[in-house]
UniProtKB/TrEMBL annotation:
This is THO complex subunit 3. Transmembrane segments: none annotated. PANTHER family: THO COMPLEX SUBUNIT 3, THO COMPLEX SUBUNIT 3 THO3. Keywords: Repeat, WD repeat. The lineage of its organism: Eukaryota, Metazoa, Spiralia, Lophotrochozoa, Mollusca. GO terms for cellular component: THO complex part of transcription export complex. It comes from Patella caerulea (Rayed Mediterranean limpet). It comes from the Eukaryota. PROSITE patterns: WD_REPEATS_1, WD_REPEATS_2, WD_REPEATS_REGION. The keyword Repeat applies.
Length: 318
């Protein structure tokens, strides 16, 4: 009987086509799938948000949202409502969008230039972090700020755990700091990397979380024990972005290396890799299929960013 590893390697031999959608006029910072997997969204340096519909084996652009006055640095979808997404921008606002409308349904002023954003698993709260390491918790219903938390260290990425009772931050000191939620009392500070800890991602199953660091390593942590169970070391540059597949078995990681690494979570072995011409800033697995959305620092010519969104994993042409 073929192992999962072998069956996935075979799957990607037959499904390794990349489809590109040219949608932005500048670098794409963030891509994410809606919770039902029917839509993909991208946020760009060009201040816009694009939404695409996934038909069986192709993406088609559905809408371009305008309204932000600066770069859209990160976006995420509502964990349970497939039409709602939120964007963080350098214009000192976050915006909530409904894909059924052509404009934002809410714009919330914040205290600084926003660089990271996440939605609590129950959908009630949005957390947004800015360049001054201030994290603001916003009521997703009333759009009012509930609380601000100023940190004394560089905060890179923020996330709740899947149960929503812990809040995680990755730091410039290489630590993963864990707070209780909603009390926001510090519980643990895990020394994860000797260098800046950049990104954090939780698997959908609730077993592991992974962090990526400037030391070019990805570390995988057991969530119940808070111990590092393995590291992935195939990349040579700072790991900027991570994503677990819907079944929790595959982990994609990307950096300025000219490949995206796709590994078996349980063994660390390489399943496949996606060649890239330029650094990759964002990756996101589809919530139900083995399709990986990503965006690179592509250039049309030397001066102009191409603003392309790519999806890997479509059937290879016979």
């Amino acid at each position: 009987m073929a192992t999962y590893m072998e069956s996935m390697q075979k799957h990607f031999q037959n499904n390794n086509r990349v489809r590109d959608t040219q949608s932005h006029s500048a670098k794409v910072h963030s891509v994410a799938w809606s919770c039902d997997g029917r839509r993909l969204a991208s946020g760009s340096f060009d201040k816009t948000v694009c939404v695409y519909t996934l038909e069986r084996d192709r993406l088609s652009k559905e809408n371009t949202f305008r309204g932000h006055g600066d770069s859209v640095d990160q976006l995420c979808w509502h964990p349970k409502h497939p039409d709602h997404l939120v964007t963080a921008s350098g214009d000192k606002t976050i915006r909530i969008w409904d894909t059924r409308c052509s404009r934002s349904v809410a714009s919330v002023n914040t205290k600084g230039e926003n660089i990271n954003i996440c939605w609590s698993p129950d959908g009630s709260t949005i957390a947004v972090g800015n360049k001054e390491d201030l994290v603001t918790f916003i009521d997703a219903r009333t759009h009012r700020s509930r609380t601000d938390e100023q940190f004394k260290y560089e905060v890179n990425e923020i996330s709740w755990n899947n149960d929503g009772d812990l809040f995680f931050l990755t730091s410039g000191q290489g630590t993963i700091n864990i707070l209780s939620y909603p009390a926001l009392k510090p519980l643990h500070s895990l020394t994860a990397h000797p260098a800046n800890c950049i990104c954090i991602e939780f698997d959908p199953v609730g077993t592991y979380f992974a962090t990526g660091s400037a030391d070019a390593l990805v570390s995988l942590w057991d969530l119940s024990e808070l111990v590092c169970v393995r590291t992935f070391s195939r990349l040579d540059w700072p790991v900027r972005t991570l994503s677990f597949s819907y079944d929790g078995q595959l982990l994609a990681s990307a950096s300025e290396d000219l490949v995206i690494d796709i590994a078996m979570v349980e063994t660390g072995e390489k399943v496949t890799e996606i060649p890239c011409d330029t650094p990759t800033f964002t990756v996101a697995w589809h919530p139900k299929r083995h399709l990986l959305a990503y965006a690179c620092d592509d250039k049309h010519d030397r001066d102009r960013d191409s603003g392309t969104v790519k999806v890997f994993g479509f059937p290879t042409d016979p």
